Amino acid sequence: MGGVTDETTGAVPADVTVADGATADATDDVPDGATRRETVPTDAGDARVTWYEPGGGTEPWTVLALGHGAGGGIEARDLRALAGALPARGVTVALVEQPWRVAGKKLAPAPKTLDTAWRGLWPALAKPGLPVVAGGRSAGARVACRTGRELGATAVLALSFPLHPPGRPERSRADELLGTGLPTLVVQGGNDPFGRPEEYPEGPYALVGIPYGDHGFALPKRAPLGGDEALGLLVDAVAEWLDALR
pTM of the entire structure? Predict the structure, then answer.
């Protein structure tokens, strides 16, 4: 672990495992609920991983790595819900920020660049020595689908997979989803303009629809269920699917 230091003290924290070349961020930079955060250099720039790890004697058995979309970061409601709920079930959740986001840029780069960054930070995700499920929302889901098998992921979780641009169903991205070669779960909002559940082709993946949800799993005020209930459905679906992988 040469070159790995805590940005506050210059020392390697004794209870933190950090990937080669990565830097443990200052403790006061770690969000509430997270256990640690590290900056990871990649060929596309510095990425950042925020870790949510089991505590209270719960033994971790897998890592769920989740990348964000092109229109936002790891503050997305679905990513936060999973990070808040799954560690209690033995799942270490790693929320990954792409280099463009870390650098403060407003526009995401080309898919090839996103894939390069994901490949570069993968050793940090695998460092705990646990099986890693590759996942993400929207553009992050596409990255996971494209790279999961080559990187040795055990499965792929695709949240709000953008099956096509809004209003352009002829520009399907189904080939990315159908070609993962791994156990795959898609969780999709019932009103997602990037692809509603009924638009998805048959294939070797599981699909769970969240009623009335849009691309960010937000619900209209007229929906007969609340936002927390919808996120509960999402978390339960992902947790059950993960349990089936054990």
Answer: 0.90
